[in-house]
Amino acid sequence: MLNVADSEFGTKIYCDRPTEKHYPVHNLLKSNGCGFLCPPVIAPPVNILFCFREAVDLHLIVVKPYVRRHRVGSFSIFARRKTVKRKWGACTEHDNPFESMRHFGLATPLVSVALDKQPAETVVAVRLKDTQTVPIGSMLNTAPNVYAVQATGASSMERQKVCSVLLRINRMAHTSFSLCLGEVELWCSTPLESGCTPVLPMIPDPVSQQTPDRALDDESFQIPEDFLDPITGDLMNNPVRLPSGVRVDRTTLVRFQTERLDMQPGADPRPIDPFTMIPFDGDEVQSDVELKMAISEHLVRCKRLKDLCARLDNHSCFFIKPTISTVPQINIPSDSEPD
């Protein structure tokens, strides 16, 4: 099987909503990408379209529905077959992708997944074939929790010669503030393949399997949760306290208000609390001086510890040879020698 959610395969990806600068939708075509993230003002649904260079047969779709603290609550997957009028390999990359998204709205999804009752870090495995094999390079082999689902929304014929796949995010989780996706794998085989699939590990049952937390090698370098921005997940440099009591970075709040006014020109120009969506006056936001000092002290401690580790590493490069003391030899006369 081949993961066609990769730019090297010639797959193109489109999204009908704006994304964050450092989390574009093209990250989903990278094996170790950081995922894609929409601004907090974007409301669902969000459509993500994968257009293949040539038609493929879908076997397995793997979705990582979270990025840091942000998590998807529900999503649906659609598939579009190659039409008869097209030649082999001529897929939807030459069509208008947004027009293709509109056609998907009239189709029946292959599967719809709800993650409300699943653990936070759960990877979804959607099986489209009777085979229950997992590719060696799939993230299912290292996922802390796996939720396996069988696609029942389409016949087996509709899963063959697929030229595009649409992943629609229906809603976000209750504890999240941005629509996101961490990673997507589309394991397929072209009709030219022989169909011989090696025996690989089985997909776990739908019951999630919890694994122990992976602690860092040095806990001193861990950043406390209170120091991270709840919207972006980054370390706060200038934390402020909102009327709702939540602390965010000032740059995050300014960007939220700017993007909201850009998306809604006729909206109330007053600032809005991202967690309650209630307008407030600008003087109600106050800098959290104590939290800012705590973050600064934590960074200083981490820097000192890092410098100390570097000095210890430098000292370990020198090898001091042990001194060997020479013991004087005493000649002891034997019994045969005369006195």
Automatic annotation (TrEMBL):
User: What's any one GO cellular component for it?
Assistant: nucleus
Top-rank taxon, per record: Eukaryota
Q: Which is a GO BP term held by this UniProt record? A: protein polyubiquitination
Question: In Gene Ontology terms, what is one molecular function of this protein?
Answer: ubiquitin-ubiquitin ligase activity
**What InterPro entries does this protein's entry cite?**
RNF37_RING-Ubox, Ubox5, Ubox5_N, Ubox_domain, Znf_RING/FYVE/PHD
Segments forming domain U-box: 222-305
User: Can you name this protein?
Assistant: U-box domain protein
User: Taxonomic lineage per UniProt?
Assistant: Eukaryota, Metazoa, Spiralia, Lophotrochozoa, Platyhelminthes
